[in-house]
Each structure stands twice: as structure tokens, then as C-alpha cells.
Amino acid sequence: RDLASNRNEARFYREFAPLLSGRGLPLLQPLLVDERIAVDAPSEGAAPGPSGEAYAQEEAALRRGGMLLLLESAEGYWQTSPLDTSQAAESLRLLAKLHASAWQDAEFLSAMSGRLHRIGGYWTLDKRGEEEMRLMRAHWRQYVEDFAPLAPELFARPGIAELAARIERLAPWVARELAPTPEDPFATLIHGDYKAMNIFLRESEAEERPAAAPATASPDEPAGKRRRLAGRGAPALPIDFQWTGLGFGMSDVAMHLSHSVATAALGEG
Question: Which parts of this chain are annotated as the region Disordered (predicted)?
Fold first, then answer.
């Protein structure tokens, strides 16, 4: 799984990033993409979850190859988590640009789904594996036991105790509903792991961040010359396209809001 995701990112930067940049998506530009990973992604009919034999094959493939990805410098940008209201809004504007770059473009999505993940997202059922589903009930029981004393009213609500069983029962249906074809309405390119640590935010004087040593100009840099900002100086830049592929944009939005945004910001709508 990890080898296929690394190859996915290499293919994204080598084959699709130039076109998407031309469509208005701000990206860190790749300076070098050297990918030599001889491993195929799991077939559509394969059982979810890697087997012992699959692990051995991936290990052998890894030893036969590798990958080197070099991007332009992200100087002038920084990362933080969780995001406040303005940072969350900026990150969602960036996400909208990503989704708009391939929105309902059946020809592009068809070509992309043959080279990137057929269905994007690290959370998809086929990527999580059967073992994770089997262990969910036991893990949830332990979670409830550990945390119920801290929020007794929440854990006393009807259905909470059986939440894992309900998820396990509904997971196949949800997976099918979130697996569009390139021709489906609302189908687009999704990031697949859109969280705060996969976003660079443009530095500004209004942002509060740990103090850093002042940058010094290179002796070879002409006086008064401004350094070139990555991504054409966009307010935010996405990184990490290991799980990028075909999907519905709201899956990225749901992931981002639940994973990266401060509780107070969610309360503000």
C-alpha cells in the first residue's frame, strides 16, 4: 500500500501537476521526480488488506527500486495545527481550487483514474483492510470503557455503545456510494488526505508563530531584489499527493473539518 501511494505521488507531479497548475491550482513545482517502484496497486477484485505474501512482494520491490522527489523551496510559508477560522477558510478556498481543476471533466478524470488511485482517499475501505474492520468493535468497547467517566451523558446516549457495529455494517454501502466513475455528476480529483499538516500557509505579519532568526540576504543577491515565493505567492499550497485520485469533493471537506480545524472555529460555522 505504501509503495503504491509513493508511486501515486510521483505520477501526480510528473504527469498531472503541470496541467493542473495551468488550470489555476497553486502547487510547489517539482524540480526532480525519480521514481523506480516496480509494484502494482491492488486490483479492483482483490480482497481488502495486504496478505503476508503481498508484504513480501512489496519488500522485494522496494529493495529493487526507490523514489526521489525534490520540490521547490517553501520559503515564505509555514504550517500549523489546529487551524483557526481564517486559516480554515483559506485552506478550504485552496481545496475548492483543487476540486475545480478537474470538476466533472470526464476525459481528464478517466485518464487520471488509470494512473492514480482509482478511488482517492487513504480512508477508503479497500485501503484500510479487513483486519481493521474486525478489530473495530473490540477497540470501540475499550474506548467507551476508558472515556465514559469523562463524558457520561454522551456515552449514555442510545446507539453509542453499538457505534462500531453500525459502522462495520454500513461500511460496504458507504464505500460504494463514495466510489464514482469519471462520468458521474460531481466527480472530481480529490486530495485524499487533506489535513493541516498537508497545507502550507503564506506567512504574514498578522500571524503569530514562533520567533525565527531573521533571514539574511545572500552576498550574491542584488540589493533590493525580492525573493521568488513558491506557488506564485498563493495564500496557501497543498502538499502530499500520495492518496490523490478520483472521488467526491465533500469527502476531502469532511476529513479536513474533522481533523484539522479548532473546535472554536467549528463553533463559528
Answer: 208-228
Instruction: Judge whether 208 and 87 are in contact, CB under 8 Å.
Output: no
Chain-wide mean pLDDT for the chain? 84
User: Is residue 21 helix, strand or coil?
Assistant: helix
35/262: higher pLDDT: 262
Cα–Cα distances in angstroms (integers) from residue 74 to residues 66, 92, 196, 237, in the given order: 24, 20, 15, 9
Burial of 258 (0-12, 13-18, 19+ CB in 10 A): exposed
**Whole-Å CA distances, 219 to 216, 222, 227, 268:** 9, 8, 13, 48
Report the greatest alpha carbon distance in the chain.
68
- pLDDT tens sequence across 70-101: 999 998 999 999 999 999 999 999 999 999 99
Contact predicate 73/169, CB 8 Å: no
Axis-axis angle for helices 163-177, 130-147 (nearest 10): 140
DSSP secondary structure code for residue 42 in this structure = P
Contacts of residue 100, defined as CB under 8 A and 6 or more positions apart, other chains included, come to 23, 24, 188
pTM of the model: 0.79
